[in-house]
Design goal:
Layout lengths: L5 H10 L5 H23 L8 E5 L5 E3 H14 L5 E6 L6 E2 L9 E9 L10 E9 L13 H4 L8 E7 L3 E6 L5 E6 L4 E6 L10 E3 L10 H12 L10 E2 L5 H11 L2 E4 L10 E2 H14 L3 E3 L16 E2 L1 E4 L1 H10 L2
Parallel strand pairs: 3-5, 11-12, 11-13
Antiparallel strand pairs: 1-2, 3-4, 5-6, 6-7, 7-8, 8-9, 9-10, 13-17, 14-16, 15-17
Helix pairs in contact: 1-2, 2-3, 5-8
Bound molecules: 2,5-anhydro-1,6-di-O-phosphono-D-glucitol and manganese (II) ion (2 copies).
The site of 2,5-anhydro-1,6-di-O-phosphono-D-glucitol has 13 residues, from β5.
Length: 333
Amino acid sequence: MRRVTLTQYLVGRQQNNLINADLRLLLETIARACKAISTRVNKGALADGLGAAGTDNIQGEAQKKLDVLSNEILMEANVWGGNLAAFASEEVERPVPITEPYKRGEYLLLIDPLDGSSNIDVNISVGTIFSVLRCPKTAEGKYCEPEEAAFLQPGSRQVAAGFAVYGPTTVFVITVGDGVHGFTLDRETYTFVQTHPDIKIPADTAEFAINTSNMRRWEPPVKRYIDECLAGTDGPRGKDFNMRWVASMVADVFRTLTRGGIFMYPRDSKQKEGRLRLMYEANPMALIVEQAGGAATDGARRILDIQPKGLHQRVAVILGSKNEVDRVTSYHK
Ligand code: AHG
Ligand code: MN
Ligand code: MN
């Protein structure tokens, strides 16, 4: 069987007028940067890639060497394409506008350069998450200055989103609004090849993902839902549930896309806003999950409808198989 490469897929989307040439180049460039990150992740200790960078990011989290390197790789790959107005990154306090000598374009790129970085040193899957927005225009029809305010658009305005997971294989997952497609990196030809066309999440599941070490601090609806799952065949659900928690959102979401499941990082009495970041993690994953037929809420609202107030804002996340997400959301009402 002849498989479609990521480039062929994107050219097809351009020919169908779903994306323009600038967005196609941007998405290809992100994918190329992900290949470079994959190679560095793969080399691990051989390339002195493990361990702490010795710096903290804006969230006050200790950066790993690979957090810093992945951020550099993504920014350097994208700065010259002429398609971006600015970047924002989990690892950088302020948005980075494109300036001379480079041409400024119409898109805003948001990245979690390395997701799951607590897993790097222990050889467990990590990844990269990205989200693309259009730079808003002023009343006169000119592009706004790409400052923080330009980025504060609800996730429903994303024109593309995706992630790479650096696991036993490297897989690149993307949506441009016509479903979700997965591409596996062929290391012999160094190309992403479509292996997971039109991914759909089953509506029902018997598998949940949550960090249960926070259980004593959860809000009651989440505690109720998990208690009911744990009660298994003896409880109100009448069936046994399985549990998984990789602690890399990319890996947990990829599993959810592949075989269904519910993934939750709720707010709790210690992390009152939640743990995950709206702009770099929740929004892109919510678009992907919805495009795959699943659902994503913060317990009360659809994630994609939330009006962001800050670039680094955190949010509660409940996503995955639709019937289970709807159930947890209904427990909040
Ligand atoms: P990051 O490495 O980009 O900071 O994100 C880690 C996130 C996410 O990938 C994962 O689901 C969650 O943090 C894990 O949190 P716990 O360590 O609390 O399990
Ligand atoms: Mn992350
Ligand atoms: Mn990260």
